[in-house]
């Protein structure tokens, strides 16, 4: 039996994980297995969790404003470890031009604060089904 | 590929575990292609929130100084959606940071007994891939997590004050399992009383087992607990009782597969044959002993 496994991680120093938890619960309720790593993870730890858990997709919740640096680091580490085939999505308060840059960098999707949960769930399902 | 290399190749281990989790016959094939190997399984069970993950984290770190160590942590799947929130990693700060330790979460996927359908295969695979010590944290359901006794060589039961009364504990039958007892959260009121009462209950049922007070946050008592686990495993090795544990693990692995097949659809001939193979192997195993 195959189930979709998602990593929901909170890299960076901000201490708010409400949003990440709400998304994690929505994904669980949509029938996915969600690995939640908790607050203040380094990029190293996030990539390690993705590798050891062999998730299908990775979600990063970033509210600290350091999204460009963090995403770049995560994507580079993923390449280095040989898991860069896994799609990455980002949630957080991210200016439109940064979101564009992130997508160019290789981030699959960027979800702003008001995004309906259903849109996030559908988008992840779509990405994994591919 | 050499054993050592496979153990060190976390990416290969991780991807193979996924294949094992998703397909029983693939699992069987993979395990069959690896040579048998001696390793030890430590089960960690107990009430929800008792501190199983936090304690496992510290025990695994101590173990990893001498042994190649892996952790499998199981959390429940929702019976309605099949989804799961796997949060044990949050409490495993040291192990998840360590380069030496492999940590994997698993959802219980509808299996009762506090384990996951593919847990036996996952553990056997880790053992054959070069890990010496596999820690398995069960679902903290508080009741009937007795399956862990068939999987693990030594079972650690984690209790903590403030999580329910004695009657609940006895009703749940959870005091009937476990080789070593840890009363965790010794910093909280009621811990030493709980240890005393646990000792009394065990004595009444004629089981004299070690009970240790621990604080898995600051590490108090954990080294002692680690030594007790090592001692128990060492004694199993010396007395040869470990062989019986391993035989039982294989028996229950097969039985678990039988159970899975019956839950699926064994009207197909192929399934029927698979079913028979497991049963026949178990008869062979029982005859040998
Ligand atoms: N005061 C105190 N709190 C502890 C101790 N050990 C763990 N905790 C806390 O207890 C809570 C639960 O710890 P976990 O390790 O997640 O417990 P668990 O048994 O794995 O929980 P489940 O897997 O959800 O059943 C966390 O908030 C820990 O920080 C301890 O020795 N003392
Ligand atoms: Mg836990």
CATH class of chain A, named Alpha Beta
CATH superfamily of chain A: Cobalamin-binding domain
> Ligands in the structure?
guanosine-5'-triphosphate, magnesium ion
Q: Could you tell me the mean pLDDT of chain B?
A: 88
CATH class of chain B: Alpha Beta
Q: What pair of chains forms the biggest interface? A: A-B, 27 and 26 residues
Low-confidence stretches of chain B: none
Task: Describe the protein.
The complex is a heterodimer of chains A (130) and B (289). Chain A has 130 residues and is α/β, with parallel strands linked by helices. Chain A has one domain (5-129): Cobalamin-binding domain (Rossmann fold). In chain A, 47% of the residues lie in helices and 18% in strands. Chain A has helices at residues 18-29, 43-53, 67-81, 96-105, 117-129, and strands at 5-9, 33-36, 57-62, 88-92, 109-111. In chain A, helix 3 runs parallel beside helix 4. Chain B has a single domain (3-241), classed as 3-Layer(aba) Sandwich (Rossmann fold), CATH 3.40.50.300. A 7-stranded parallel sheet of chain B has the order 4-2-5-1-6-7-8, with helices on both faces. The model of chain B has no long low-confidence stretch (mean pLDDT 88). By secondary structure, chain B is of the alpha/beta class. The A-B interface holds A 1-3, 24-25, 27-38, 45, 48-49, 51-54, 81-83 and B 10-11, 14-15, 17-18, 22, 77-78, 81-87, 89-90, 96-97, 102-105, 107, 109. The structure holds guanosine-5'-triphosphate and magnesium ion (MG). The site of magnesium ion has 5 residues of chain B, from helix 4.
């Amino acid at each position: 039996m195959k189930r979709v496994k998602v990593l929901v991680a909170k890299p960076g120093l901000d201490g708010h994980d409400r949003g990440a938890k709400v998304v994690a619960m929505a994904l669980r309720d949509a029938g996915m297995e969600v690995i939640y790593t908790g607050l203040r993870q380094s990029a190293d730890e996030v990539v390690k969790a993705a590798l050891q858990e062999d998730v299908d997709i990775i979600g990063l919740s970033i509210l600290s404003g350091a999204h460009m640096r963090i995403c770049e680091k995560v994507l580079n580490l993923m390449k280095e470890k040989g898991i860069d085939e896994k799609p990455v999505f980002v949630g957080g308060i991210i200016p439109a031009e940064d979101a564009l840059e992130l997508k160019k960098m290789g981030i699959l999707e960027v979800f702003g604060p008001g995004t309906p949960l259903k849109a996030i769930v559908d988008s992840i399902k779509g990405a994994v089904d591919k | 590929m050499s054993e050592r290399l496979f153990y060190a190749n976390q990416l290969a281990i991780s991807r193979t575990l996924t294949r094992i989790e998703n397909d029983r016959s693939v699992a069987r094939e993979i395990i069959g292609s690896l040579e048998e190997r001696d390793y030890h399984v430590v089960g960690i069970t107990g009430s929800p929130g008792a501190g199983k993950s936090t304690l496992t984290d510290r025990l695994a770190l101590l173990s990893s100084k001498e042994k190649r160590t892996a952790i499998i942590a199981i959390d429940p799947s929702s019976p309605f959606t099949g989804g799961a929130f796997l949060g044990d990693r949050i409490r495993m700060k040291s192990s998840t940071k360590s380069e030496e330790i492999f940590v994997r979460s698993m959802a219980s996927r509808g299996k009762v007994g506090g384990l996951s359908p593919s847990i036996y295969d996952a553990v056997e695979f880790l053992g054959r891939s070069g890990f010496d010590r596999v820690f398995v944290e069960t679902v903290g359901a508080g009741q009937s997590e007795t399956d862990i006794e068939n999987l693990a060589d030594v079972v650690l039961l984690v209790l903590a004050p403030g999580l329910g009364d004695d009657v609940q504990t006895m009703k749940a039958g959870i005091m009937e399992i476990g080789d070593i007892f840890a009363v965790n959260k010794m910093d909280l009121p009621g811990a030493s009383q709980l240890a005393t009462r646990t000792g009394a209950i065990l004595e009444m049922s004629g089981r004299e087992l070690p009970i240790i007070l621990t604080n898995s946050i600051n590490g108090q008592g954990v080294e002692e607990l680690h030594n007790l686990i090592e001692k128990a495993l060492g004694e199993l090795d010396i007395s040869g009782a470990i062989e019986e544990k391993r035989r039982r693990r294989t028996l229950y692995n097969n039985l678990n597969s039988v159970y899975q097949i019956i839950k699926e659809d064994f009207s197909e001939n192929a399934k029927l044959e698979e079913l028979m193979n497991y049963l026949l192997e178990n008869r062979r195993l029982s005859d040998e002993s």
